[in-house]
Specification:
Blueprint: H1 6-20, H2 25-71
Amino acid sequence: MSGIGATGIILLVLVALLLFGPNKLPELGRAFGRTLREFKAGARDIMDDDDRKDKDSSRSEVNRSENNDKDNKRLPD
């Protein structure tokens, strides 16, 4: 099965019309669109936060290694 065909989409639209009526469908569509938009924005924020944390941790590791190199300087024998 490769998914829903044209017949399936038509059947879904007819069932939605019967269940909710023609006046309620635009409101449901808008609400669904807003929900998807908020979900995408939240997921994007989480992904950006993870990327920032990764970059910050790699920077702090570099800074630590640089500080260790400075602190560990020895005098020549």
